[in-house]
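I am sending you the entry underneath: sequence plus C-alpha cells. Let me know what the C-alpha cell row says about the fold:
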Amino acid sequence: MRTDYVQRFLFEDLDIRGRLVCLTGAWERMLEGRGYPDQIAELLGQTTALGVLLGANRKGAGRTTLQVRGNGPVPLLVADCQSDLTSAELKIRGMAHFEPGAQGSVRELIGEGRFALMLEDAASGQIYQSVVPLEGETLSEIFAHYLTQSEQLPSFVLLFADGSALCGLLLEKLPKADERDADGWNRVTQFAATLTLDETRDAQPYDLLTKLFPEELLRVYMLDAVEYHCPYDEDKVRDMLRSLGRAEVEGILAEKGEVLIKNEMCNHEYRFDAGAVASIFKEQAHGQRPD
C-alpha cells in the first residue's frame, strides 16, 4: 500500500479540482533525530503538507519552498519540495526553529509575521517569490487566504499532522464552477471539512476520496510518490570550506579546536579536525580529491 503520495483529482461535473497528500514513512524520516515537541511537529507537518500540495501542481523540474516567519516563540517554519526529470518522486525536507517550552495557539506560537512562497525553475534558474502578511488563526486559514489572493481562485485547505503521519487536502474553485452547479462548491467543502487525520493513515487515496465525496463524479490522476531526501554530502561541505580559504578555516580551527558545520535543514553535522582540514587544502593544492 502506498502511503507517501499526492493524489490529484477533478470533480467532473463541478469545475472544481483538488489534491490530497498523505505521508507516513517519509514524514517519520523527516522527523528522525530532531526531538521536536508534538505541537512543533504538527506545525512543521502542516507546512510540509502544503509544500507538497503546491509542488505537485508544478510542471517540469523545480523547487517549491514555503517559509512562515514570525515574532513568536516559533519564529521559523520551512518546507521544501523538489521535483526533477530523473525521478518520478517528489522530494521533501524541512525544519522548524522554536524556543524551548513554547506553547499556545498557532498565532501565539508564530506571532505576527509573513508567509513566503518561492518557486525555482530548474530549466531557467529563475526564482519567483511572493511574500504576504500572515492572516488567519490557523495554518490552514493562513494558507487558504494566501492561495485565494495569489491565484484569484477560492481555495479550501485542510491540514493535519502528528508525529507519525500528515495529510492535507486542497480544493480550488475554477472560474466556471458556479455555472456548472451553483451549490457545488458549498457542498464539496462541507464534505471535505469532515476529513480527519486518522481516516488517511491506512487508506488508499481513491477509496478515501469516494468515501469523502460519495455523490460526486471524480476523475483521479496518476499518483505522485513522495520521499524524504536530504543526503549526507561531505564533498559539498569540503568545497564550501575551500571557497572560504585556508587562512579563515585554520583560524576557526585554532579558536574552536575543530571546524563544525551544521546543516539545519537536513539535521546533519560535519566535523573537521586538524588532519581533515590539512587534507582539504592538500587536495586543493594538487587539484584533486583522494579516493
